[in-house]
Specification:
Strand content: 15-25%
Number of helices: 14
CATH superfamily of the largest domain: FAD/NAD(P)-binding domain
CATH topology of the largest domain: FAD/NAD(P)-binding domain
CATH class of the largest domain: Alpha Beta
Shape: globular
Bound molecules: flavin-adenine dinucleotide
Radius of gyration: 22 Å
Number of domains: 3
Structural class: alpha+beta
Number of strands: 22
Largest sheet: 9 strands, mixed
Length: 501
């Protein structure tokens, strides 16, 4: 790692890695450091919805317009991680009928391409919808894989010369003359930077506090539930003001139901009552959700700047804060926004940074595809194509199945495990999806541990962490699955329901 750079970015979510890609493409000398693995903050804990903007058209027109423009750009530059499913907004039997006209009008004003379709046609397209729904509007929503998007940004930033490091927590920042000295990994490394960017999302208040700057962040928690298999073909939104349990996203081999919005804190897990209430709400438009198999729950934190109001009344747009106004010139924080608008956020932050550096190169991130691979398979997004893509790199390594739920080969596990970025089983899971399927790693965890060359204590730690998201959905088939897994783990001397050690 260099000991001096022009810009140091803290935070390896979509925003930070987006900034790293943007600045590296403009020729800036940059290092990014992430405390854990890439996309382990809110970026890896959302619905994976590429917003057309329709969800915010009536309540948050600024965010709606940003999403409308950015989703079109991302479908072009990040098609390797987007499934362009389209979406439907559905008026439930007892919801306000007048809302449909207001919604269509607001979408038109935000430049979102929408069409009302017959209820009968919608029921043919999505047979699981409630037969009593009263109006349906088609919108250009899509499904996006946040892990692959972020890893794509990392790959692109490195291609343009950036140093990008995961598992490198910043533990101190000191202003030293016109530069900053940033301490990483409990003081094991330090680096001098002309500009420091705080892209730490929900941790932004803590990061700014290292320089004595006050960034008042309120934490708003959202809970989501993952169901086994694709219950819907398109993204389904309930046509009403954004509320709990009104989004269903088809995502890879699963369906994600979200979300709630309530005051929360970092590391908080979902509760059984949140899961129950999400399912009850969603049943108004998709009754079969009651009998579908939930396989896990997870939570994400929205860092909100305006603490007087909370939750859904706050804009989903973003702010670039120049701390020159706090007397610390050269430090910026970037807060809020959406996964969908990460590129725009990165562009605006990078424009401010370029001014500070006295440099003139302009943003070109909207015009160049993120993955600069010549691999044609990355043109098609589906599970087979991703496997094929990995398989081509595997050559002589085994294609035996290592994770049956997600169709991951042992060769793929070994290839990914050999990356210097992959230091634990979790990192391996994010890059391959092994362990994310309905058995929740019950049958593949030994293959993952073996690919990583780690022992029982790491295996136990990983399983106990997974358990936190499984416990709130213990009913029906998943309860049977977990009882089976508990017996199996006992064979290895592990109680995976104990807290992580
Ligand atoms: C419930 C929920 C659902 C959502 N659904 C969607 C959706 O469907 N579509 C959409 O477009 N948007 C969605 N969003 C919004 C979206 O997820 C976020 O806007 C986006 O992921 C924020 O990314 P980020 O990079 O700013 O923050 P994060 O992803 O949180 O990244 C911050 C990073 O900083 C790191 N960090 C913290 N402290 C340090 C330190 N000291 N040193 C080094 N690194 C540090 C963290 O480890 C973390 O990885 C949702 C948000 C929530 C809460």
């Amino acid at each position: 790692m260099p000991s001096k750079v022009e810009v140091l970015v803290i935070g390896g979510g979509a925003t930070g890695t987006g900034i790293a890609r943007d600045l590296a493409m403009r020729g800036v000398d940059i290092v990014l450091v992430e405390a854990g693995d890439f996309a382990t903050g809110t970026t890896g804990a959302n619905h994976g919805m590429l917003h057309s903007g329709a969800r915010y058209a009536l309540t948050d027109p600024i965010s709606a317009k940003e999403c409308a423009a950015e989703s079109k750009i991302l479908k072009h530059i990040a098609h390797f991680c987007i499934e362009d499913t389209g979406g439907l907004f559905v008026l439930a039997k007892d919801d306000n009928e007048g809302y449909a006209d207001e919604f269509l009008n607001a979408c038109r004003l935000a430049n979102i391409d929408t069409h009302e379709i017959d209820v009968d046609k919608a029921l043919t397209l999505e047979p699981g919808l409630d037969s009593n729904i009263r109006a349906v509007v088609e919108v250009p929503d899509a499904s996006i894989d946040p892990f692959f998007l972020t890893l794509g940004n990392v790959e692109a930033a490195r291609f343009y010369g950036a140093t990008v490091l995961n598992h490198s927590p910043v533990c101190g920042i000191r202003s030293s003359g016109s530069r900053f000295e940033v301490t990483i990994n409990s003081g094991k490394k330090s680096i001098l930077a002309d500009v420091v960017v705080n892209a730490t999302g929900a941790w932004a208040g803590r990061t700014a506090a290292m320089l004595g700057i006050d960034v008042p962040i309120c934490m708003d928690k959202g809970t989501m539930v993952v169901f086994n298999g694709r219950l819907v073909n398109r993204l389904i939104n309930r046509m009403r003001p954004p509320s709990d349990g009104d989004i269903l996203v088809p995502h890879r081999t699963s369906t994600i139901l979200g979300t709630t919005s309530s005051p929360g804190s970092l590391g908080e897990v979902a509760s059984y009552s949140e899961v129950e209430s999400l399912i009850n709400e969603a049943a108004a438009i998709f009754p079969n959700i009651r009998t579908a198999r939930a396989i896990r729950s997870y939570t994400g934190i929205r860092p909100l700047l305006n603490c007087k109001e909370m939750g859904r009344s706050i804009t989903r747009s973003f702010q670039v804060i120049d701390h020159a106004y706090d007397g610390v010139d050269g430090m910026l924080s970037i807060i809020g926004g959406k996964l969908t608008t990460f590129r725009l956020m990165a562009e605006k932050a990078s424009d401010v940074i370029m001014k500070k550096l006295g440099r003139t190169a302009r943003c070109s991130t909207a015009n160049e595809e993120i993955i600069l691979s010549d691999d044609e398979a990355s043109d098609i997004f589906d599970v087979e194509a991703m496997r094929y893509r990995q398989g081509r790199k595997i050559n002589n390594l085994s294609l035996d199945m290592a994770c049956g739920c997600e169709a991951v080969s042992s060769g793929e596990l070994f290839i990914q495990a050999s990356s210097p970025d992959v230091v634990n089983i979790d990192d391996l899971m994010r890059r391959t999806r092994a362990g994310m399927g309905y058995c929740q790693a019950g049958l593949c965890v030994l293959n993952m541990a073996s690919a990583m060359g780690v022992g029982v204590s790491e295996l136990r730690h990983y399983m106990s962490e997974r358990w936190k998201g499984i416990e709130p959905v213990l009913y029906g088939e998943q309860l049977r699955q977990e009882a089976f897994k508990a017996h199996l783990m006992r064979v290895y001397g592990i109680d995976h329901t104990e807290p992580p050690q």
